[in-house]
User: Fold this.
Amino acid sequence: MSALPDDFLTAAEAAKRLRTSKRGVYDWLAQGEISHYRVGRLLRIRATDLVSYLERRRNQPPQRTSTYGRHPTR
Assistant:
């Protein structure tokens, strides 16, 4: 494993970085949304796994399908 201890975050640290609640992070961990390690009773999240989670959750703009404001071709 190439991860160093400095790369691991607690749920509280992950929540702070995401600017969300610790409860929300625990819910995402339980649902398998964020990969993590269990060390005894403790959960640890690699910083790269947190970034991967964010990338998967990124909202892409929808494709433009409307012709609003354009003349339809005949």
Residues 6 and 19 are 20 Å apart (CA to CA). The two ends are 61 Å apart (CA to CA).
